[in-house]
Amino acid sequence: MVRQLGFSDVVSNCGNQIWFLWGPDVRCQVLDDHEQILHVRLESNKWPKLLFVTAVYAKCDTIERRAHLDALRAVSVGVSPWIVGGGFNTVLSSDERSGGSAPSGIAMSDFHDAIADCALVDVGFVGSPYTWYSRHLRQRLDWVLISSCWMTVFLKMQVAHLELSQSDHRGLLVEAECTVEWKVSSFCFQHMWTTHSEFLGVVRRNWQYPTIGSGMMRLQQKLTRLKHCLKVWNKTVFGNMFDNVAAVERGLKETDEAYDQDPCDRTLMESNRCPAELVRVQKRRFRGTIFGIQHEGEYLTYSIAIKDSATSFFQRFLTAEPVFPEEMDSKHLEDGLTDEDRRSLCVMPTLEEVREAVFSIDPDSVAGPDGFGAVFFHTFWEIEDFRVSK
Question: What PANTHER family does this protein's entry cite (predicted)?
Answer without folding.
Answer: BNAC02G09200D PROTEIN, ENDONUCLEASE_EXONUCLEASE_PHOSPHATASE DOMAIN-CONTAINING PROTEIN
